[in-house]
Amino acid sequence: MMKLIRLAVLAAVMVLPTSLVLAAGADNYPDKTVNYIIPFGPGGESDITARHQQSFFKKLFDEDLVISYKPGGGGAVGWSQLNGMKGDGYTIMGINLPHIVIKPRQKDVGFKTEDITGVYMFHYTPDALVVTSDSPFKTIQDIIDYAKSNPGKLTTSGSGKGTANHLAQIRFDKMAGVKTTYVAFKGTGKAVTALLGDQVRAEWGYTSIGAKHEGKVRLLAVAMEKRHPKFPDVPTFKELGFDIVSGAYRGIAVPKSTPEPIRVKLSEMIAQINADPEFRERMENDGMALLDVGYVDYQAFVDEKAKVYLEAAREAGVIK
Amino acid sequence: MQTDHTENVVERDFGGMVTAAVFILVAVVALWDTTNMVDADSFVFPRAVAIAMIIFCMLLIAWGLIRPIPGDGEASAPGASTTRRVSLVAAMLGSTALMPWLGFLISGFAAFVSIMLIAMYDEWTPFRKLVYPLVCAAFVVGFYFLFAELLLVPLPIGGLFE
Amino acid sequence: MPGIEYLLEALTPFNIMLALGGVIAGTIIGSLPGLTATMAVAVLVPITFSMPPASALILMGAIYTGAIYGGAYAAILLNTPGTPSAIATTFDGFPMAKRGDGDLAVTLACLASVAGGLVGAAFLLGLAPPLAKVALAFGPVEYFWLAVFGLTLISALSEGNLLKGLIGACFGLLLSSIGIAEISADVRFTFGSQVLLGGIETVSALIGLYCVPVLIDLVATPDRHLKVTHQPKGFRLIEALAISWKYKFNLVRSSVIGTLVGILPGAGGSIAGLVAYSEARRVSKRSEHFGTGEPEGVQATESANNATVGGGFIPTLVLGIPGTPPDAVILGALLIQGVRTGPNLFTEEGSIVYTFIYGLFLATILMLPVGLVIGRYAYKIIITVPKAMLVPTVAFMTMIGTFSIRNSVSDVIIMITLGVIGWILNRAGYSPSPIVLGLILGRIAEQGFVQAWTIGAATDELAAMFFGRPISLAIIAFIGLSLFYPLIRSRWTGRRRKVNAD
C-alpha cells in the first residue's frame, strides 16, 4: 500500500511541472533548465561550441543550459530521435551541415533532411587545406603542381567520408584538375594527428585547426568569402580562382511539435548570444566564424547549401 | 562425463557444434549484407572475417565429429531453476520495453521488485515483508536522484505522463 | 624535479579538497557499471569554469583516476567491468573472488592502481615533451598491428579450445562493424533497423556479456554468490603488500606498458590492461594459472590502466590531442578556459601544468586510503547482502548505467539480449572474452588496415607500409613472441628436465 501511495505522489510531482510549462506559452520561456543535446560524443567541436554557448546562456537568460550527449552514427542517432522528444522548447539539439543533408540520402538513417526543424544556424568553421609548418608545400600552387606530376600520390587526411572535408577535397580536385587520395579518419582529432605525424601530406580540415595547433601547422587557403580575421595572410580559395566557400555549419533544432512562438523566441535568444561581443571574440579566437541565419531564413539557407553538397556527393559516389 | 559404456555412449560436444552451425548462418547472413555496400572499403574487412568464421566453424564441427570429446561448457548447478532464469530475463526486458511509456521510476521500480521476488530464496519473515519493499523503493528513488539530478542524465519521464 | 616550485601550490587546502573529493567521487562513479570516467568528467565540466585552470585540472584528473580504479570493484566482485579499462581485471579478479579471496583482490587492485598512477604521473612530469613524439609516430599501420597483438590474447583466453576462441573473436569483429562505418560512410549490418545505426556500444556489450550471465545463474540456485572462507577482518594489507613486492617487476613493467599505451591517442585503459595482461602472462612462471585467479593478473591490469591516466595527459597537454576519451572532455574544458595546449604549456604556463601534475600525484596517493576503505565496504556489502537484494540492485544498476551511456533505451535491450546470448554461449563452451576482444579491437584493426592500405596504395609502398616501419616491426616481433614463446618455453623446460634426469 505504502509503495502505491509513494508512487502516486512521485507521479504527480512529475506531471505537475510539465503541465505548467505547456500552459505558459512563450512569455516566460525560458523559466527552467534547457536540455541541449549534442548528437556526438563529448570533447568534439560541437561540444566545445556548445560549452561556449552554455556560459553565455546563463549570463544572458539566467537559466541553465545543460549539455547531454547522444552519440552514434555520426549524428544520425540523435537526429532520428529528435521529433520523438518533447516539443516545449526545453529540449534542443545541435545540428550540422552537411551531415543532415548527406546522411539521409545515403541510406535509411531514420530521418529526412526535411524532418529537422532548425531555428538557427549560428556558426561555421570554414574548410581549409592544412599542412605542417615544415612542409615543403608553401602555397596552393605547390600542391597543384605536385599533384599534377604525381597523380594520386598526394595523401590528405580528413574526418570521415561524405563529410565537409571529403566534399571539399572532391570539389577541389575537380576544379584544379588533379587527383589526390583522401584518407578518412574518425574525427577531426585523428585527422590532425595523422597530419602532424607525417602519415599524410596534407589535411582537409578547418580554420579552427589553425588556431588550435598554432605554430605547428600552416593554412594554405580558407574557404571563405573574405580572409579570416585571425589569419590575415592566408588567401581564400576564391582569390586563387576556386569558388569554394564552405565548411561545417552548426545550428540548433527543436522537435517538430515545438509551438511557433517558442521557435521564434529561441531563434532570437541564440541571435542574442551570437551578438555578444565577448562571445564573438572567443569563437573567433578559436578559429571559428560566426553566422546569423535565423528561423525565418533557415529553410532557404539549407536548400541552397544542399544543392552544392548533393552535387559534390554524387560525383564522389557517396550517394547514388 | 565418460562412463564405462564408452563403446555405446560417445560424448560429443553437441552444444559447441550446434552453436558453430548457428555461427555459420550468422556469417552467411553477414556476407549477404555486404553485397549491398557501395564503397569497397566497407566490405573488405567484414567479408574476410565472415569467411574466416565459416572456416573455423567448419573445422570445429569436423573435429568434433572425428574426435569425440565431451563438451567443455559450464555445467548447470544441480537443481538450477530454469523458470527463475527465464523470468529474470523477461522482467528485465519487459520493464525496459515499458520504460518509454511508464517512465523510468515506475518501470524501474517494477523491475526491482519483480527481480527481488525471483531471487528470493529465504523465508518471508514479517521483518522482511516490511523492510524489503522499503529498501527497494529507497534504492530506486536513490539511484534515480543520483542519475537524473546529480549526473544530469535525462531519464525517461514516460509517454503516459507527457 | 622539474617545476618543484609549484608543489606548494598543489598543496593548498582548496586543491587538496578537490583532489580528495574527486578521488572519492570518481571511485564511486567508476564502480557503477555503465558509468564511465568520461561521463563523470563531462558532468563536472561546468563547475570547473569558475575555477582557476590548475584546480580544474586537478579535480578532473582526480575524478578520472578514481573512476579508472573504481571499475575494479565490479570487475572483481561481479565479473562486470565497471569501466572498459577493467575488462582484463575480470579474468583473474572474479575467480579470486569466487574462491574467497575477493578482499585480497580488491586490496591488490588498490595497491597496483596507486603504483600505476604514480608511474604514469612520473612520466608526465619528466618526459612529457619527448614522449609526445611517440604519439605522433604511431600511424594507422601501427594501430593495426597493435590491434592484432591484442587479438593474439584470444589463445590465452579461450581456456584451451582455440577454435571456439577464434570463432568468438570473429563474432565480436562482425559485431563491431554494425552501424555507420567511419571509414567509408556506408551503413552496415543494420538490416534497416534504426536501433542499430549507432552500432553496438562497447560498455553495454561488456555489461551484457559479462554481468547478465552471472545474474542469470545467481537467480537459479540459492547458493551464495561468492565463497566466504574467512571473516573479513582488516584489508589483508600485509598479505597484499607481500604479494606486490614479490611481483614488483610485473608491477613496474605493467605500469610502463600502461603509460605508453595511454600516450597513443585512441587507445585507452582497456587496451593497456589487455596488453599488460598478455605480457605478464607470457613471462610469468605461473602462466598456466592465469585466468584461474592469479594475483599477478590483477596487478598487471590495474597498474596498467591507472598508468594510462598520466600517460594520456602527455599528448593532451603537449600536442592538444586527447590520449584517451576523458582527455577529450578535459581538453574541451581547458579550451573554454582559454588555456592553449602545446610545449609552451610546460615552459611559459608552467604554473598550470606543474601545479596540476603534483596535484595528480597527490590524488593518486590519496587513492590508497580512500580505495582501501571503500574497497573494504564494497566487499563486505557484496558478501553480506542477501541474494534477493543483491540481484535486483545489480540488475537495476546495469539497466540505468547502460541507459546513461547514450541516453538510449535500445542500448539496454541490446545489453540484455547480448547477455542471454552470452549465457547460452557459456553453456556451449564459448567464453565471452574473445567476443569482447573482437568488439573492441575490431574497429581499431579495421580502421588501421583500411587507412594504411589507402595510403600505401596511393604512394605505391604497400609492402613497405605494412612491414617496413620500425615501430610496426617491433610490434610484429611481439606478436611472434606472444604466439610462439609458450611453445619454445615448454620445449626448453622439457629439455632441461631431460638433462637433469640423465
Describe this structure in words.
- The complex is a heterotrimer of chains A (320), B (162) and C (502).
- By secondary structure, chain A is α/β, with parallel strands linked by helices.
- In chain A, 43% of the residues lie in helices and 21% in strands.
- Chain A contains 11 helices and 10 strands.
- In chain A, strands 1, 2, 3, 4, 5, 6, 7, 8, 9 and 10 form a 10-stranded mixed beta sheet that branches.
- In chain A, strand 1 (34-38), helix 2 (45-61) and strand 2 form a beta-alpha-beta unit.
- The model of chain A is unreliable at 15-24 (pLDDT under 50).
- Chain B is mostly helical and 162 residues long.
- Chain B folds into 2 domains: 6-66; 82-161, no CATH class.
- Chain B contains 4 helices and no strands.
- Chain B has helices at residues 14-34, 40-66, 82-118, 126-150.
- In chain B, helix 1 packs antiparallel against helix 2 (40-66) and helix 3 (82-118) packs across helix 4 (126-150).
- Chain C is mainly alpha-helical and 502 residues long.
- Chain C has one domain (4-493).
- Chain C is built from 21 helices and 2 strands.
- Chain C has helices spanning 7-10, 13-31, 37-48, 53-78, 87-137, 140-151, 153-157, 162-176, 202-220, 237-246, 248-263, 269-283, 295-319, 325-336, 344-347, 350-384, 387-406, 409-427, 432-458, 462-467, 470-501, and strands spanning 179-180, 187-188.
- In chain C, strands 1-2 form a two-stranded antiparallel sheet.
- In chain C, strand 1 and strand 2 (187-188) form a beta hairpin.
- The longest helix of chain C is centred in the first third of the chain and has 51 residues, at 87-137.
- The mean pLDDT of chain C is 85.
- Chains in contact: A-B, A-C, B-C.
- At the B-C interface, helix 1, helix 2, helix 3 and helix 4 of B face helix 8, helix 9, helix 17, helix 18 and helix 19 of C.
